[in-house]
Write a structure and sequence with these properties.
The chain has 7 helices and 2 strands, in the order H-H-H-H-H-H-E-E-H. It is mainly alpha-helical. Residues 36-190 form the DinB-like domain.
Length: 202
Amino acid sequence: MKKLIFPLVILLLFSFSKDSGTNLDKNDREWIMKHLTETREHMKQVLDGLSDEQLDYKPDPTSWSIAENVEHLALTEKMFVETLHKSVAEGPKPELKDSLVFKDDQIMPMIADRSQKVKTAEPFEPSGQYGSTEETLAALLAIRQELMDYVENTDDDLRNRYATLPFGTVDAAQLIVFIAGHMERHVLQMEEVMEDEDFPEM
C-alpha cells in the first residue's frame, strides 16, 4: 500500500502544477501573433533609413520626436510585458470573465485611434535613458521578440488570466493585442511627424 501512495502524491502534485484551464487556442495564438508581427514590421519600415536629424525633429516644442516615441515604446512595452507575466502568475480568475470592457475586434481600433490624445505618466516620459536611438530601438525589439517567443510557445490559458488597465479589465490575450495596438498608435504618431511641412529631407 505504501508503494502506491508515493506515486499517487507525485501524480497529484504534477496535476495541480499544470494550468487548470485550457491551453491557448490556435486561433487566438494566430490572432495575437498577427498583430505583434504587423505592428513591429510597420515600425521598422517607418524608421528605416531615417537620419539623426529626422529622428530628433519636433514639429513644435510640445510634440515628441520620432526618437522620443521609440523610447516611450521601449519603456511602456517593458511595463506591459511585466503586467502580462504578473497576470499569468496570479492564476485563473474565471469570475472576471463578465468584467471585460471590450470585444476582441475593438482593441486595435480603440488604442490606435489618434483622435483621442492621452498624456502619459511621468515614468514613461522619454528622457534618453537607453542612450542612442539605435540602442533604444534594439532594447524595444528585444522586448517585443521576448513577447513573441512567449506567445509562440506558451500553453497558458490567456483567456482565463486578467489585467486591469486604466479603462477597465482585459484578458491576457487582449492585453497582448493592446500592446501591439499601443505600438501602432505611436508609429502613426511618427508618421504624423514625418508629414510636417518642415520635416528634414535627410
